[in-house]
Specification:
seven-stranded mixed beta sheet, 2 domains, Metallo-beta-lactamase, Chain A, binds fe (ii) ion, binds flavin mononucleotide, elongated, alpha/beta, six-stranded parallel beta sheet, Rossmann fold
Length: 415
C-alpha cells in the first residue's frame, strides 16, 4: 500500500489535501486497475472549510496531515457532498479532533451519516437545493444532485473561484499523481468515459437534471473527488457528460408490447398507466387485453418488440385468462433477450406476478425486478414486479413511475 498525502494549492486559499491510492482497489465489484485518488479540499478562509474527506482506510493518516496544516479546533465546516465511505470515511476520525466543525450536508446525508458513523451531539447544517454559505472570504453554493450516484448526493460550487466540487461526478479512477489534467502523462479520457458509464450512466435522467442545474454557472475548474482536477477546458467534460447522457434519436422507434388479463379491470388500469408513461418516451406501445386478442398476433408483436410487460391479477393463487397459454408459447420458442417485467393487481397474496416472472425467465427475457434493480440506486426497488393491492390513486402513480423506469430501461438497453 502506498499513499501520498500532501497539500497542493488549487485555488485562492484552497488546497488539495487528498490521498493518491496506488493499490488495485476493489470497489463495487470492480478492481480499479489504475488505482484512484480521494480528493479532499481545504479552504483556509476566515471560517476554514473542508470539502469531503478521504477513504476510511486512510482516516488516521488524513487527520495527522490535517493537524500538521492547521489547528483542527478552528475548522468551521466539513462539507459532505456524498456519504459513501471513500469520501466520508475519515469523518469520524476527523470529528474527534475538529471539535467545533459543523457538518454541512443534505438532510438525507445527515441521516445516513448519523446511522453509519453513530455521530452524536454534533451540529449539522442541512442544505437545500441552491443554498449558499458564507465562509468568510468565499461563498459556497450547494446543489442537490440526487442519485449521482446515491440518493443523498449534492455538489458544491465556490462562487468567487468559479470552481465546482462535484465529488464522484466528473471523476476518474486513476492514481493521478500529477493531479491536474493539463499535467497528465497519459490519455485519461477513456477512463473518464468508463467511469461515467459504470457509475453515472445508470442514473442518466438525473445526469440531465444535474446538467440543467449547473448550466447557469460559470465554471473555470472542476475539482472532483477521484482522479484529475479538470482545470484545462472544464467545459469539455461537461459537454462529454451531456453527450453521453443524451439518448440517440437516430435509428428505429422502439416498441413495447403490453399484454394482460383482468377480471374486473384493475389490472387494465395499471396497463394504461404503464402505456402512457412509455408512450411519453416516444416509443410505440402495442397494448392487448387477452380477452379480445388473438394469441398468435400478440406473440408476433412480442417478437418484434424491444420490451415486454405482462400483467395478470391473481385468482386462487394463479394467473387469470389466457396469460399462461401465451407465456407457455413464448417459453417454448426462442425469444430475444429484451427487457421484460410483470404487473398485476391482487387482493391478499398476489402470486400471479411471480408465475409470470418465472415464465419470462424461462423464455430468456431480461427480467426487470428487484434483483435487477438492486444497487441501481435511483429507482424504487419495489417498482417491479408491479404488484398492486386492488387499485387506488397511489397505485396508479406507482404504475406511472414503473412505466417511466421501464421506458428508460428499454431505451438504454444494450443486449
Ligand atoms: C374469484 C377470485 C379469486 C381471487 N383469488 C385471489 C388470490 O388467491 N390471491 C389474491 O391476492 N387475490 C385474489 N383475488 C383478488 C383479486 O386479485 C383482486 O380483486 C384484483 O384487484 C383483481 O384485479 P383485476 O380486476 O385486474 O382482475 C381473487 C378475486 C376473485 C374474484
Ligand atoms: Fe460514490
Ligand atoms: Fe467515490
Amino acid at each position: 500500500m502506498r499513499s501520498e498525502l500532501n497539500s497542493v494549492k488549487v485555488a485562492e486559499n484552497t488546497y488539495w489535501v487528498g490521498i493518491v491510492d496506488d493499490r488495485k482497489v476493489p470497489f463495487h465489484r470492480l478492481i480499479l486497475e489504475k488505482g484512484t485518488t480521494y480528493n479532499s479540499y481545504l479552504m483556509m478562509t476566515e471560517k476554514p472549510t473542508l470539502i469531503d474527506t478521504v477513504d476510511i482506510a486512510f482516516g488516521r493518516e488524513f487527520v495527522e496531515q490535517m493537524s500538521s496544516l492547521m489547528d483542527l479546533d478552528e475548522l468551521a465546516y466539513i462539507v459532505i457532498n456524498h456519504v459513501e465511505p471513500d469520501h466520508a470515511g475519515a469523518l469520524p476520525a476527523l470529528l474527534r479532533k475538529a471539535t467545533n466543525a459543523v457538518i454541512v450536508t443534505t438532510s438525507l446525508g445527515a441521516e445516513l451519516l448519523k446511522d453509519m458513523f453513530r455521530i452524536k451531539n454534533r451540529e449539522f447544517l442541512i442544505i437545500k437545493d441552491g443554498d449558499s454559505l458564507d465562509i468568510g472570504g468565499k461563498t459556497l453554493q450547494f446543489f442537490e444532485t440526487p442519485y449521482l450516484h446515491t440518493a443523498e448526493t449534492m455538489i458544491t460550487y465556490a462562487v468567487e473561484d468559479k470552481t465546482l466540487y462535484p465529488c464522484d461526478q466528473f471523476s476518474t479512477h486513476m492514481a493521478a499523481h500529477e493531479l491536474f489534467n493539463d499535467l497528465a502523462q497519459e490519455d485519461y479520457l477513456p477512463d473518464f468515459e468508463t467511469y461515467y458509464k459504470l457509475i453515472m450512466g445508470p442514473h442518466r435522467p438525473y445526469v440531465r437534471k444535474m446538467l440543467e442545474k449547473i448550466a447557469g454557472l460559470e465554471i473555470n475548474m472542476i475539482a472532483p473527488s477521484h482522479g484529475y482536477i479538470l482545470r484545462e477546458d472544464p467545459q469539455r467534460f461537461i459537454s462529454l457528460y451531456d453527450e453521453m447522457s443524451t439518448l440517440s434519436t437516430s435509428g428505429e422507434t422502439k416498441k413495447v408490447t403490453i399484454v394482460y388479463s383482468t377480471m374486473t379491470g384493475n389490472t387494465r388500469k395499471l396497463a394504461q398507466q404503464l402505456a402512457e408513461a412509455i408512450a411519453d418516451y416516444g416509443m410505440v406501445v402495442d397494448e392487448y387485453n387477452l380477452r379480445d386478442a388473438d394469441l398468435k398476433e400478440v406473440a408476433d408483436s412480442i417478437r418484434s418488440s424491444d420490451g415486454l410487460l405482462v400483467g395478470s391479477s391473481t385468482r386462487y393463487a394463479d394467473m387469470v385468462g389466457d396469460i399462461e397459454k401465451l407465456l407457455q408459447e413464448l417459453a417454448e420458442s426462442e425469444m430475444r433477450r429484451i427487457p421484460a417485467a410483470a404487473f398485476g393487481s391482487y387482493g391478499w397474496s398476489g402470486e400471479a406476478t411471480l408465475h409470470i416472472e418465472n415464465y419470462l425467465e424461462q423464455a430468456g427475457f431480461q427480467v426487470i425486478n428487484e434483483r435487477h434493480l438492486l444497487g441501481n440506486h435511483g429507482y424504487d426497488m419495489s417498482l417491479f414486479p408491479l404488484r398492486v393491492k386492488f387499485i387506488d390513486e397511489k397505485a396508479l402513480e406507482r404504475a406511472r413511475q414503473a412505466g417511466e423506469l421501464f421506458g428508460e430501461k428499454v431505451l438504454t438497453y444494450t443486449a
